[in-house]
Each structure stands twice: as structure tokens, then as C-alpha cells.
Amino acid sequence: MRPLTLRLASTCLLIVLSGCGQAEVSDQRRDFIDARDHGWLDLQVNLPANRLNEEAAKQGCELTTSVDGEQFVREHLYPQSEAQPKVETGFRFSVPAGNHEIALKLEHCQAEPQTFSLTTKLKKDHLLALNFDGEQLRAGDSDTYAPATLDKLKDRLAQLEEAQEDTEKSINKQFRRLSLLLIFGLVISTLLVMYAGKRRN
User: Fold this and answer.
1) Alpha-carbon distance 131 to 138, whole Å?
2) 97-142: per-residue pLDDT in tens?
3) How confident is the model at residue 201 (pLDDT cuts 50, 70, 90)?
4) In this structure, are residues 113 and 18 in contact, taking their beta carbons and an 8 Å threshold?
5) Nearest-CA neighbor of 125 among 102, 147, 153, 92?
6) Which of 16, 108, 133, 175 would suit a FRET pair with 143, their CA atoms being 20 to 30 Å apart?
7) How far apart are CA 156 and CA 153, in angstroms?
């Protein structure tokens, strides 16, 4: 078996054994969260080479992100290359607004699994930056955030259509007014011409 094929097979086996993808939040749960007061977590992951063992430097490792014990994201972390065995990636996902304990669990990166956590507050309609360097999980800036969604795009299109209809109504109203003024002017001009003609006679 070729080295590349062996590496791919080993990676797939690692993913299957770790149960990757089975612990993520379902679409139904995500819809429930998004329909209520919520914010977003923006997790930036930067693992230097010294945070990856020899196996992880070749095949990557696993990261599980939990909020109050509920697993939200479980992903395989891929190193950039064997020449530069470091991980630079990130994830953004919605979470209920409020106080939370956020925990990260690294598996297969070192000899033993490692867990990192912090307690922080997520404001409604805010994006909270999280930074993880393999040694510590830190909370960064929190800014207002309004992502584009299909519903918001539909609302915006409806607003534009309504504004266009109002503009067309206003233009038609002005056109009718100008038309009436024009007709009135023609009638007055005709009457004046007729009146002038009669006076000459």
C-alpha cells in the first residue's frame, strides 16, 4: 500500500473510531436556538507544532467543543503540511444567549486527551471571539453581529418591492397631476384664443 493511501486510510479509521460527526448539534436543535435569543461564538484555533505529537503532525487530531456539557462542534483538525505541522482553523456557530461554560477537548493530539474551559457571557445578537492556542482558551472581543439569512434577505426584498411600489404610485400621481395641468392649460389657451377671435369680430 502506498504511503498516501495508508495515511488516508489511517485518518479515516481515526475519524470512525472517534465517532466524529455524531455529536454535533442537529438541524432541529440549531433551528430551536436560532428562533430564540442567541449569539455566536467565533472560535479560532492555532495549534503550533509543539502541541502535536508525531502521529498528529501527520494525520491531525480531534477537537470537541461543548457548551454547558452539550457538544456543539466535533471536527478533525488537519495540519497544514508535514513541513509545517501546525493547525490554523476556526469555527463559528450560534449558541443561546447567557452565561455559559465553554469546554474544548483535544484528542489524539498528545498522548492523553486534554480539556480546556472558561466561563463567559454571550450577549444576544453579539459575536464573541474565542482564541485557542493549545495551551489556553481565551475570550476576546464581543461585537454586535447580524448575519445574512434567507429570511432576512426575503424581508429586505419585500421592503425593496414595497418601496418600489410606493415610488411608482408617487410617479403615477405626479404624472396624473401634470396631465391635468396640461389639459387645463390647453383648455384655457383654447378659450382665450376663441375669446380673442370673438372680440375681433
Assistant:
1) 5
2) 999 999 999 999 998 999 999 999 999 999 999 999 999 999 999 9
3) low
4) no
5) 147
6) 133
7) 5
Amino acid code (one letter) for 113: P
Residues 6+ apart with CB under 8 A from 146: 125, 152
Residues 49 and 81: their CA atoms lie apart, in Å, by: 11
CB atoms < 10 A from the CB of 197, how many?
A: 9
pLDDT confidence of residue 24: 75
69-94 burial, b at 16+ Cβ within 10 Å, e below that, comes to eeebbbbbbebeeeeebbbeeeeebb
Q: Cα separations (Å) of 113 from 19, 76, 105, 134, 135?
A: 15, 14, 7, 12, 13
Query: Measured at the alpha carbon of residue 46, what is the angle toward residues 137 and 87, in degrees to the nearest 5?
Result: 135
Residue 52 · residue 105 · CB < 8 Å: no
Closest alpha carbon to 130 in 100, 99, 102: 102
CA angle 13, 19, 129 (to 5 degrees): 115
**Digit-coded pLDDT (tens) for 9-62:** 444 444 443 344 345 789 999 999 999 999 999 999 999 988 899 888 888 899
